[in-house]
Fold this sequence. Notes:
Number of strands: 17
Radius of gyration: 22 Å
Amino acid sequence: MINExxxxxxxxxxxxxxxxxxxxxxxxxxxxxxxxxxxxxxxIIPTFKDISSIAKNIDFKFxxxxxxxxYFQFSGNGQVLxxxxxxxxxxxxxRNNFDKPLRWLVAIGYQLYTWHMExxxxxxxxxxxxxxxDERALECNRCLNTVYPKxxxxxxxxxxxxxxxxxxxxxxxxxxxxxxxxxxxxxxxTLEEAVVREVKEEVGVDVKNIRYYKSxxxxxxxxxxxGFFAEYTGNTEITIDNKEIADAQWFAKDTLPSMPNTDAIGxxxxxxxADS
Length: 276
């Protein structure tokens, strides 16, 4: 999975007393894109020296350290970016062209960027939020409301029937591949209860013997994916909801469709089934 980067070392310890040095790396995001610098025939993450020479009113937030190198999230205004040297690339470009440790760090930086963008003002009193010194959080100096990075729990489940697995294809035209059933956990719900409900809602079947597999943080959507394997009870037929699910089928190991890569827990779980 994209977050499994050993032997590379990533330290995300929150620190507020670190100032960017010329050779430290900076990540500037805009919507779903990140700024990269042209380097011969490829693109790389710019350094503080690069950014400080082309931007004004800059503000840096320390993200963490990857293999001893510091990385900062950058924001500012008045940027004048030479088009022949700098370009904004979709996050998926990074996922497809950078090595795994750097892909993971860029994803984490993107999650922090979206969190800051969505929490400029206090939701209780409307005051401007400020960085909290002693932890990774934003604080309102007026009403003392504290806002932490959003992490939404999501279950994802591989449903097994004998030697077959249930895979579904969503209605979103951007993601036309088959994968596992997944969904957000509701208020007051256990993870296991969420598995039962989501499966019933999306494909109409009942499951039993729910077993935890592993979890994965997914910064692209600010979620924590919690993986489970479950068995089909055999007493209900597939009935798709037609809202989120366009099609759902049972697949044997030798008829599995083109699958998502193993960056995500869903792709890994399908391969665990295929190799079992």
